[in-house]
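Colleagues,

Please find the record for the two-part complex below.
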Amino acid sequence: MNSLSLAQVLQPGMEQSETEVKKTVLKLEHVNIHYGSFQAVKDASFEIYEKHVTAFIGPSGCGKSTVLRSINRMNDMIRGSWIDGKILFNGHDLYDDQVDPVLIRRRIGMVFQKPNPFPKSIYENIAWGARINGFKGDYDELVEQSLRQAALWEEVKDKLKQNALRLSGGQQQRLCIARTIAVQPEVILMDEPASALDPIATGRIEELILELKNNYTIVIVTHNMGQASRVSDHTAFFMVDDKRTGYLQEYAETEQLFLNPQHKKTEEYISGKFG
Amino acid sequence: MNDLNGQTAFGHAADVSSLMEKRRRNGLVWHIVFVFSTTLAVLFLILLVFSIIDSVFGYAVLRNDVEPSALVAGKDSVSAFSRSELEDTARTRLSSGILRRVEYDKPIAERSDKDLVSLIEEYVVKPKVLKTWGFWGSLTERKAIETYIAENEGSYATFRSWLTPSFIMADQSADPLRAGIRTALLGSLWIILITFVFAFPIGVGAAIYLQEYAVDNRLNRMLQLNIFNLSAVPSIIYGLLGLAVFVRFMEPVTSGSFIMGTVDNTANGRTILSGGMTLGLLVLPIIIINTQEALKAVPDTLRMSAYGVGATKWQTIWYQVLPVSVDRILTGTILALSRALGETAPLVVIGASTFISVDPSGIFSKFTTLPIQIYQWSARPQGAYRNIAAAAIVSLLILLLLMNSAAIYTRDKITKKKRLEA
């Protein structure tokens, strides 16, 4: 909580108008995540704002991916994982007994580290998610719109029937983003989306993220601090204690965190002293 | 790299070269061992194929009860008889009892020439097999064959294939020259159909549960271990199980009386349904394990990406996991069914018929299968039975090949369609 208030104190660095429209989409309150008897993350509390890009950075094993996956209940898939604390999505607790994780994932989409399109056609990759969600509209239009938004339309419009696995890695990752968009989520979670890509493909993904932020709330985990500073508005820096439990060290607006870190650990990490 | 003492970066030069020499020698020994075992395996396979083929073709020395030339002067074979000669011979030479039965089935005047020829051959000419030679023997032992014919008055040799279309189409008979495998072939096909219908859905369903749904606890681990053990249980044990459960305990169901009231046959539960379900039990663990392996091979990232777009567990399995693993599942099933097709012991235990004259007509019929038929024939002392056993083996192999190619063709068609859609 301390770091959060810190970020708010340091607000004057931003334009006045932008701070006023900031709306909280996701609110984490004292989130602890465990795998069996091992505690992976302790006491994480912060907010994620609508149509902003929030980056999670930190050394390996600090729990940033774990926190990301807990936001759309992907951790449910891992045997023995459990969580306490609250994650509020537009004010509703995602871990309430009444909540169906499947419906959460339809509103909070996810893009993975390694591009993992379905072994089907490009068209089907995008249409499938909508179809299982009971989409009734024009599929051709949906596919085109989604591909356009993911900046992939021009490259694939003549080969929509082709197997998606024949695309390059960067194209596959943009297809995965298009696939996520097609379900029309509010939030897109990205787990190191560019770590398996070459620098040019990475650049395109970053451009795309900046583009998408006009319509979606984006949370991105990244190992690349340059990437975090280029694409994100807010950055959460996670650290790991001597029991290998991750915790939130500092959360602030990106510019603030990179230019004027409040913690020694943050400063050391962003200057490359460890990680 | 050498300094003055013969020292290299990897050690002393002499040591290094002796080490490499040793390693090469070791490599060579293993290489020879592997080549030797491969060669041995291939040799045995060739031997197997040759010994089967050898029995299928060759000379048979026959002797007729009545020579065709004694029936109609100047004609050496019944098939050379004219229509009137055929009818006359049939009317005059058949014993009165057989003639009455034949006329009752279908009057002689209405029967085809071919039909009459086989009637006369069966009841009048009555060729008997005295001795047979294999293919190799037919080529190398001409002298012995000739001597044998000379010693046995009225005998003659014909070079024949024991595997003929009529061998496939004929029903069972005590005479090796007339016996065929039709009933056994139909029995095998029926059995395999029931096995598939019974074991495939249950096996795949169980595998999906164990692999995708079951949580990792002690109970499920026990279950898994036992499935592995079951797949190694000798097949005759499954026969005992089938006898106790399907034939005895479930007799009202397996004999059909449950559905059709009283059934007037003597099957008493020893039906195709019982046999098929027994073999179904036998291959069930194999199908489960194969399907589980197929599902395991599907990367978790695929499941994650499906969940990521809001798919339910079942949607993920049905639309993403199964289409990717279907060809492996089918391959496993084909192998399992091939095993079932060749099984003898469990069917003998549940009481499959060894000699039936009627074709199986449904799942409540008595049955025999090709392996049982082969076993029966090969156990007889007369030489000609060995030849028809070999012919039946070839038929079984051809059936297996056909079944597998059909299954592989279907599988490839499914995967190809998948790829095109894909």
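Chain B touches chain A through 22 residues (CB under 8 Å).

Comments are welcome before we finalize the supplementary table.
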